[in-house]
Fold this protein.
Amino acid sequence: MDLSKMTKRSILLAILLLAILASPVSAMNWQTETVDNGSSYINLTWDHLTGKYTSLAFDSSGNPAISYQYYNAQNLKFAHYNNSSWEIETVDDVGQVGYYTSLAFDPSGNPTISYLDYRNRTVKFADYNGVNWESETVESSWGAGLYTSLAFDSSGNPSISYYDEYWRNTSLKFAYYNGVSWETETVDNIGDVGKYTSLAFDSSDNPAISYYDFNTSYDLKFAHYNGANWEIETVDSRLNVGMGTSLCYDPSGYPAISYLDVTNKDLKFAHYNGVYWEIEKVDSAAGLNTAGGEYTSLCFDASGNPAISYNDGNNDYLKFAYYNGANWEIETVDSAGAAGEYASLCFDSSGNAGISYYDYTDYRNTYLKFAFCMTGTLPVNSSVPDTWVYVDGINRSVQANTTLYLWPGTYNITVVKQDYETPSIQTVNVTEGANPEIDFIPEPAIPVAGFVANTTLETATQDVSFTDQSTGVISSWLWDFGDGTISTDQNPMHNYTTTGIYNVSLILTNPSGSSTRVQTSYITVVDSPVAGFSSNVTSGVVPLSVGFTDSSINSPDSWLWDFGDGDTSSYQNPNHTYSTVGTYNVSLNASNSLGSNISTRTAYITVSSVSSGSPSSSSSGTRVSVSSSQDPDIVISTDTSIMRVTGGTSIEFDLSDGEGPVLGIGFDAETDEGLVVTKVQVLGGTPADVPIPDGNLYSVMSIDVGAEGIISSDNAENIMIRFKVSREWIDDNNIDMDTICLMHFYEGKWQELPTDFESEDEKILYFTAETPGFSIFSIVADAASEEVSEESVQTEETVSLTSEEGQQEETDTEDTKNTPGFSALAGIVFVSLTLIVLRKNK
């Protein structure tokens, strides 16, 4: 039985159960009141129309304020709640004003209003200076100022979006105060655009505007200033959409827009998710009333969820829609008569909702009204961190140990976390204001044990790594490896010393219980072979005969060789002849009754064509041949690399995996040379026709890049050789590191090459030298300066050449003396030693 599936299924069932049991009570306690009925300044025997074009905002003390129009006199009015009653004053009564008002408080807490001067068809701005209202014209061009929307940037400067109705313009405009005067610009003038504007600033302090494209395409559009210019995009183009737009940014900084679908008479909501706009229907057949019901107002509540106020034109109701984290819920705020036009929604700092709106129940006597609903605060705590809060089965996208803002009503609250038992549900009646906190103590689910090993078939003494793949909350681990040993590590490593087949088990515990996982016959320990081999040669000219020697361990009894040229052998130590030029991989599969193992050596055998031509003493530096024509007894090791050389490219032969001191050879090729094999042979001494170079000798090498002279300064530039020198040799021979250099033998003598030090580590120093071509090379250096007495110079010195791989064994003294040329060589050695001593004395 899979406990992990049971645990996850339990959590899913619990969430579904919460959703089924969810019974949100529509108990939002909306309180409505009349703010202005004109009784203080209108003869009540007359018809009076007041309350159109409302705009709501809360001051820093949480008191509501409303801008609106008294239609009879066409004045701009301002109502402000003073903690006990509404105070009403006239802001502007010059001409026909107060249309399309938009209210905002400046950073100093003073109210400001943008609006239309209908008589002059200009956009105006009024601000309260602490004593009285001051009004100014923002743009005096006739036709500007419809559908104004006011907002402040982070510097405290006001900006206004509006529609220019002049028939030659019919455009969306934007005005901003620069600290001295107003500047205006056209945002969109393609067709008849710019009605129902709504302005907001993003988190980068750039303005954005939602608006309606009228007559051109009947689309909802969104304009955003990117710091240099305006970018315009179509948000919704499904038939006739975009009236009554209201723009707001969510807590994550993404824009959202509420608006009306004129064709279907639906209320819609568009939300940008960071990639594209997501559009959904909020209320079907909400209806339209072109006298003012086409307005919507969008805000985000204290929990970060969107809410919209609007007029249901079918029923003449004021409505309120809010998103509960999973779907939209609709509330009727005012259904007494005909109400809800020009609705403006705002939340105070405590998360309470307010709506200003126009009541036109009596078409001869209309009122400005205000609806208010207080939220309740509910602290939800959990003893386990990072648990998610669910309200009526809906994840509110907040974690516990936080405060929820909920409308008054009855809710089912719980917290959920993966790998924890299904928690209990707490039913809470939330009232307005602060509510008592509720606490949860989730218990972890029983863990589900699981594990894997990096290998299940191994040889004795090989380490096995075990990886815990268990799920759930785990307090302790107990491993039993089946060989009498245990571990309490989460991810242990174990070494089996005896062949056999072993069961492995893992026991987990946490406060809720324990879980055990046993894997039977999981680890098999055998003594299988480990393949290995060598050969008597690794390079030569075609045909090349190679003898291979098996060096496998753990007693293989069968062998399968693959020589890389299509031939194979089952002999233990076969001989094979390569008849084609090329570089070959060689592999050996060694096996016995306990298993098998394959060893592969890449580019192990290099077969070249018979060298043509003779040595040259030209300045191009063609080599003195020391490849196949040299005595194999002086070759210590051979490293090879093959590449295609193409003119106009940089070539780098990588020899860093080799046994010699050369790490790489590079150059800029000028001609096409095809496939070229580079071969570096480390020699136990100089060839017979090459003298020993002066100085302390580290290594002698024969370097070929292709056939003789195929790569030189005649057809390549920047020919570089990278090599290394061991720090042990430097210390043992008291070497002055500044004198280490690469020598090149050409024109019958040794030539010092320009050598640069590259880097070093604990054991190795790295150098680069430039050469005109390839032949015989040596790495030499001088000993560090020190006082040497003549008495310390011995009459007889033994000279031995050293390489990175070791020193050549001394040859038999007597046989050497009988060798032809010994006397001459001894003389050369003596002269060399004398020069070294003299250099030290300097």
